[in-house]
Amino acid sequence: MTRPAEDGTVLEAIRRGDARALEELYRRHSPRLYALLLRMLRETADAEEVLQETFIDAWRRATEYAVSRGSVEAWLITIARSRAIDRIRNRGARLRLVKQSEQLAPPETSAPEPPDVHAQTRLRRAMGSLPAEQRRALELAYWDGMSQSEISRETGDPLGTVKTRVRLGLQRLAELLAG
Amino acid sequence: MTHQEFLDQVDAYALGALEPAEARALEQHLGTEGPHPLCEAALARAHETVATLAADLKPVAPPAHVWEGIARGITRGEEPAPRAPAPQQTPPSSAPAAPRQPPRRRVPAWTYGIAAAAVVTMIVSGVQVRQSWRAAREVSASAAECRRELAEARIDVLRKEDALQLLTEPGTQLVSLKATPVAEGALAQGKGVVLFNPRGRALFLGKSFPAQTTKDYELWLIRDGKAIAARLLSAEADGRIFADVPPEVLKGGRPAQFAVSLERKGGTDVPTTVIFAGTVAPP
After folding, report:
1. Which among B8, B15, B250 is the top mutation candidate for probing chain A, defined by the most A β-carbons within 10 Å of its own β-carbon?
2. Contacts of B5 in chain A (CB under 8 A)
3. Which residues of chain B does A26 touch, with a Cβ-Cβ cutoff of 8 Å?
4. Is there a shared CATH topology between the A1-92 domain and the A115-179 domain?
5. pTM as predicted
6. Cα of B236 vs its chain's centroid, Å
7. Which of A44, A99, B145, B195 has the least C-beta neighbours within 10 A?
8. Closest CB to A56 among B48, B50, B78
9. When comparing pLDDT for B108 and B24, which is higher?
10. Average pLDDT, whole number, for chain B?
11. What digits encode the pLDDT tens for the residues B103-129?
């Protein structure tokens, strides 16, 4: 998404054990990851803990990163989401059942960098052009950390239908964002 | 797990929407069954798309103590692992002066012979090192070329495996596409088949298709007398085409025919110049 070449250089330094490089990676990516974790976990303390775990994990697993599997930003988001999903699934009471209107708003902290308005616009257009049921399946999986089986139970749709919606929805989204 | 099964589930995997056992099966496919360029590329694409979904969020600066916790975490010995072995330290050229020289001993005459031989060996070795260095560069370039060819070969093997697997599935039939009278010259030399399975899978395999610069090949399904655009086809440098027919195109029922036309860049809604066509056998 952004700064792939520079991120690659920073990650190379992290592989050599340069803690300042990790700090640079944190400076670049933590604001978006923190926003993502706040949205998924809806608890500040959990979001902070998972953010810490994400960067410590990135430090320890820097040598496993392969550029052929995506950008550094996508890699970090994958680590963060994976840990957030684990935490959501381990919770006794699923906070995702909190209605949309009751969701916690992110803390009023100044944004360290302006959001990428162009990327936002493209994403909103792309999401808006998806059929409603595909969009719903993607949102439940992405923001609420639901598995396809859980989405099936939540929506009452057959599991096979949910699987198709997830697959087609993400593929369509990729096409729309690429175009 | 087959490559197709992996590709079918890779989007849900990237979203984190698979059950743990399903996710492990995908990881095992990538991790233990050899490198799969197509699968890895699909995974990278899915990860990028999933990452893009976060673009809609307004970035929020985390509190300072979050970084402090990370800094403490990594200084507790949690270094990146496994790290590449550090290069061996060479001793400094000017070692600190020893406080006391050891007593000199008498050098036997035969050691001069050995020393002279060593010098000759070093000179010869120097020449050999330069030659080796040149050879190493050539080997390195050849290795890069080999890797590229190997990657292409792997993709080729994966495609063939994919086609073979589809061919062995119950119900799959091979629809041979014949050149129409419109196909002339080099176009008529092309050969195309569709591996069609009525359960919703079809693969187009072509060879000797002349590369097109100003036009596109387009694959069609003929169903109920109507031509349905399946996808554009792109011939590789050696004239081969390998193309999966999008499953949603196959959902409307069994097609009567498959056809390939030559169209303007980007394709058309209705085929204009059909160059190959083949009939699907009735069930």
Report:
1. B15
2. none
3. 67, 70
4. no
5. 0.52
6. 15
7. A99
8. B78
9. B24
10. 77
11. 444 445 555 555 566 655 655 556 565
Is B133 within 8 Å of chain A by CB? no
* CATH classification (class only), A115-179: mainly alpha
Look up the CATH architecture of domain A1-92.
Orthogonal Bundle (1.10)
Q: In chain A, where are the structural domains located?
A: 1-92, 115-179
Supply the pLDDT for residue B62: 93
User: Which residues of chain B are within 8 Å of residue A74 when distances are taken between CB atoms?
Assistant: 44, 47-48, 50-51
